[in-house]
Amino acid sequence: MRKIFFKNQEFDISKLVYPILIHGQEGAGASLYTVSLAANLYSQNHKIIFLCGYTMAEKEFTEQVGTVDKSNIQFFVKEKVEDFKDALSHADDNTIIVVKNIEEFEEEVFQLVCSHNKIIISGDIYNSVFKDKILANHFATRIFFSSIDSFNIPEMNKYEGYLISATADGITKIE
User: Fold this and answer.
1) Could you tell me what percent of the chain has a pLDDT over 70?
2) What CATH number should be reported for the domain holding residue 85?
3) pTM (two decimals)
């Protein structure tokens, strides 16, 4: 499993504050970071409902964690949004909801997940038709792998993002 670092120290992901927004243009590393974050949360026995645009995310997740206990994680792709909505309606407050490739989905999906406590929204926000609504939403933790609106990130390597929250800011990365 890939490790997550913050300021070059292994990151205790239990300190992340929800909701979380992860933005990155294609090739910046945001997708792999999102899957790795989910894998790390899963390894800590968190229940996860994961909606993504493509099947590659589930494959990468399985490569990182090995055998998957389907009672603790459910994967859905964009062709199965209705099944995702059903699973979401049965999720408890401790279930982490991950939507990767948010730009691939309708605003309705975003509105549905925003009513949950523990959400991670990830994707290329600029390519979302409802980017203004995403950016207007309060995210306690924001991680930028690419510059966005008025926030320009410092120069970083691929798989490095700039994390901003109420308690910390700095470079996070996966290895």
Assistant:
1) 99
2) 3.40.50.300
3) 0.95
